[in-house]
Write a structure and sequence with these properties.
Number of helices: 9
Number of strands: 6
Largest sheet: 4 strands, antiparallel
Mean pLDDT: 85
Low-confidence stretches: none
Helix content: 55-70%
Distance between the termini: 52 Å
Oligomer: single chain
Structural class: alpha+beta
Shape: elongated
Length: about 240
């Protein structure tokens, strides 16, 4: 993504070079074009960087070079960046939600137990599919944060197969009590590693879609796991 900002304080060519060099030190900045005549700086970046971070790279608030937003809103850019980053996950959840709701529509009545079972089947089948596309890559990424896979790398390989098995079991409605207990335990263990990584602000790749998409670990990963835990818990309560 490329954004244009206004910048004050530049008076010569050396100022342009200094501003460019300072901004290029930021890890997510890919290119910088500076113009003292137009008082602008055009920055290419892998993901959205706040103006505060850009200003810090220039020396902070006391610097002679002051950068401000130009022709765009900071909040809207952050929202746009978030949507672009997590577009694959959002689309998958959208497709699964729409498909499972249509199944209920065809049945002419909404049965939330059936809907949850179909949703969980779709979730595990789709997510296991992406993991199996590059099973080795997923296992390596998963071992970076999962509490079991850190010690036993083979767990990453088994985990993808467990997700596939759970998806088929939910789809075919096989032993719902046992399957939901397995889901509750497996997803809770997975959530522990996710929570540790997010709370410690570790910048690592989320393995939820395997190694196909380079998604950062974030609260959306917590929501994914927590949603499956909640659905399996509710189902177990209703099955009593």
């Amino acid at each position: 993504m490329i954004h244009t900002y206004s910048i004050a304080g530049m008076t010569c060519g050396s100022c342009e070079a200094k501003v460019k060099g300072s901004l290029l030190t930021l890890p997510d900045v890919t290119s910088v074009e500076v113009s003292k005549e137009n008082k602008t700086v055009v920055i290419g970046m892998d993901k959205h960087i706040s103006i505060g971070s850009l200003q810090e790279a220039l020396g902070g608030k006391e610097s002679r070079y002051q950068i401000t937003a130009k022709e765009h809103s900071e909040l809207s850019e952050q929202a746009k960046s978030w949507i672009e980053t997590y577009k694959p996950v959002l689309l998958i959840f959208g497709y699964i939600t729409l498909t499972t709701l249509l199944v209920q529509l065809v049945a002419h009545h909404f049965d939330y137990m059936h809907w949850m079972r179909h949703f969980m089947a779709g979730f595990f089948l789709v997510f296991s599919f992406f993991k199996l596309l590059n099973l080795k890559g997923f296992a390596e990424s998963y071992s970076m944060y999962d509490v079991i896979a850190k010690r036993f790398k083979a767990w990453g390989y088994f985990y993808a197969l467990i997700e596939l098995s759970l998806g088929l079991a939910f789809l075919l409605d096989i032993e719902p009590y046992i399957v939901n207990w397995i889901t509750l335990v497996v997803m809770t263990i997975s959530l522990i590693g996710v929570l540790q990584s997010v709370l410690n602000k570790r910048k690592i790749q989320c393995a939820c879609l395997g190694a196909v998409f380079n998604l950062p670990m974030s609260t959306i990963t917590i929501i994914e796991d927590a949603l499956m835990i909640a659905m399996s818990a509710v189902t177990l309560i209703l099955l009593q």
